[in-house]
């Protein structure tokens, strides 16, 4: 059984193995080509028009958030099935992370989807748009970690603010204050 630290370290290393150029065996440090299903992996890395897309992973307690970002043309956004294409890219990234995690650690990675995909399209110019998509997955095998956003943090902050407000004018004075009342 792996510790929480080892699981997170394995996921981070799996995500790091998808650097730009890792899809070409000649560019990879270990000579192994890796494909995460990104658009930039299609075509030749020097001769073809560069496509800007990528992903990152963020941890929120036992939740792994995968964020995908791409620069797309406006005419591609208007096509039917654009949203399905973005969702397919997110699912390909999850498959890549599971495969790389198994290669790195020898253990399997269990990710169960939580909630829906969130996709945000923003216009950059008359030709280009920015696409940001994310989806949350619960990491299997992490039972010691609490969910982020619990009530205990709010109570602690509220009491600190109340204590500070009680120190207002005329209420309490510090011991070293020698001014006249």
Describe the protein's topology.
Layout: H1 4-16, E1 53-60, E2 63-73, H2 74-78, H3 82-105, E3 111-123, E4 128-139, H4 151-166
Antiparallel strand pairs: 1-2, 2-4, 3-4
Descriptive terms for the model:
181 residues; alpha+beta; four-stranded antiparallel beta sheet; 4 helices; 4 strands
Gist of the model:
The chain is an alpha+beta fold. It is built from 4 helices and 4 strands, in the order αββααββα.
Tell me the helix content: 25-40%
Beta-strand percentage?
A: 15-25%
Uncertain runs: none
**Domain unit count:** 1
Outline, from the CA principal axes? extended
Quickly give the structural class.
alpha+beta
Distance between the termini: 65 Å
Average of the residue pLDDT scores:
79
The total count of helices amounts to 4
Largest sheet: 4 strands, antiparallel
Query: What's the total count of β strands?
Result: 4
Q: Give the ordered list of helices and strands.
A: HEEHHEEH
Radius of gyration: 24 Å
Structure write-up:
This protein is α+β, with helices and mostly antiparallel strands. The chain has one domain. The chain is built from four helices and four strands. The chain has a four-stranded antiparallel sheet. Helix 1 packs across helix 3. It is extended, with a radius of gyration of 24 Å. The model has no long low-confidence stretch (mean pLDDT 79).
């Amino acid at each position: 059984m792996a510790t929480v630290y080892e699981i997170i370290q394995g996921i981070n290393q799996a995500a790091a193995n998808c650097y730009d150029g890792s899809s070409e065996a000649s560019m990879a440090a270990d000579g192994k080509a890796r494909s995460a299903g990104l658009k930039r992996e299609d075509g030749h890395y020097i001769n073809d028009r560069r496509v800007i897309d990528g992903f990152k992973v963020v941890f929120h307690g036992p939740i792994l958030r995968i964020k995908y970002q791409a620069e797309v043309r406006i005419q591609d956004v208007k096509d039917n099935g654009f949203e399905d294409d973005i969702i397919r890219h997110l699912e390909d990234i999850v498959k890549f992370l599971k495969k790389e995690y198994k290669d790195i650690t020898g253990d399997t990675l269990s990710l169960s989807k939580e909630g829906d995909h969130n996709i945000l399209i923003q216009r950059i110019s008359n030709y280009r748009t920015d696409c940001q998509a994310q989806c949350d997955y619960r990491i299997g095998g992490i039972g010691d970690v609490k969910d982020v956003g619990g009530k205990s943090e709010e109570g602690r902050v509220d009491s600190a603010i109340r204590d500070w407000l009680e120190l207002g004018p005329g209420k309490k004075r510090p011991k070293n204050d020698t001014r006249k009342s």
